[in-house]
Amino acid sequence: MVHGTLDTIQPHESWNCPTAGCQTTAPITTAPFPKPAMENRCVNLDRNELSEWVEHITKQLIDDLPESSATDAAFQTTATSSEDNFVPSISGDHLRPRKIMRRSCFDANGEDMIQWSNELQTHTDNNIIGRSSSIALSKLDEQGLNLITLLLECAVAISVDNLGEAHRMLLELTQMASPYGQSCAERVVAYFAKAMASRVINSWLGMCSPLVNYKNIHCAFQVFNNISPFIKFAHFTSNQAILEAFHGRDRVHIVDLDIMQGLQWPALFHILATRMEGPPHVRMTGFGASIELLMETGKQLSNFAKRLGISFEFQPIARKAGDVDVSALQVRRGETVAVHWLQHSLYDATGPDWKTMRLIEELSPRIVTLIEQDVSHNEGSFLDRFVGSLHYYSTLFDSLGAYLGSEEPNRYRVEHCLLYREINNILAIGGPARSGEDKFRDWSSELEKRLVQVPMSGNSMAQAQLILNMFPPAHGYSLVHGDGILRLGWKDTSLYTASAWTTSSHVSR
Hints:
alpha/beta, nine-stranded mixed β-sheet, two-stranded antiparallel sheet, 15 helices, TF_GRAS, transcription, nucleus
């Protein structure tokens, strides 16, 4: 074990999950993991994966769509890439075909130009097989290919406000795909179709936002934490950076911009309690939407800190961070402040990003830890968001499907209560800016303008690797450390990034 790292993972990340609205059929445990149900895996890892399909299909789809006439704008494609990720993207600003048909495209005279769906599958098969002789499409793959192709056609129809045609396709999709399906393709299409149906309804009736059941979300979040390394990666890499920033400090103040159940903090408390110089006095400010849930989280954390002999104070703030003044946090002289922000698309947790950034600057924290989903879903057109999120969530569904069987209730709970909600918020409600508040395209780039990056240390990398070691390597999780940032993904697609920042006033200390 690396000296000075958070070396206690198993017992400190589980609270008693509220049972209201989210009953569990099996006990939630961190380790050991249940044996994967190989016969139910949605993707044969020796063949092809849903996320690979999405990349090939979206690229081929755009190649096969005909150019429009001079009076009609053309379909254009762009490719957005990151260091560890490639996501094909469609620039929808000029998408204006005269008519969208499910099985063929028409020119300005209405004549059938090309049965592009059939050619799409042929070209996609050729591209996949040509790249690797070990990749082929089974009957189940072909069904998934047809589902995703129809889903893409529906997205094009929605992007040009052809809601009648989109509605017809959605009726067909809802009959063909189920969130309980054995294939990842079917499950992904079912949730995307449901989100797109909500978008069509919103377009007809006006903007509407779904109600948020925070107990359900928090419970599913805890399940996700226990069956996948992504949340643990976020928690333990951030905790390691905070631990290093708190070295030698006797009064610390942690500000969590969306604390939920506080699953992250017991592990940090445990290592702080074992410091040679003794534990510091810990004060925590937790932001959240429900004062009742915040009080319950504070009670759990207080009890845990008391058992460890840590002096602890908890301050709940049932508002968004962007809506409060720095005085509400009551920072005291001599406190070392750490700010933590685990981003997600489940709901708008912080309000206007520029106000949240202003609050962070006024706090002058010694460390800011940021966990981001590695997907650009709040910029560009609907098609930009659709293609980017389809690739991203296909990869997430792949990672769950490679580990848990199609009938595993915990897998369904995560897909339904978390991943679907994010998909719906991104596509149906307009992305992270769905509340009408201004949102940054990339938090890291904004922090870079105002703060100084603190490279994630070797100990943070060790923490992430320790977490991945709990999962068999064959399951395909990948970890990259570059440019001071840690990236965790599935195969070659980066899904979550962890970074740390500080204010210039702390750099020379």
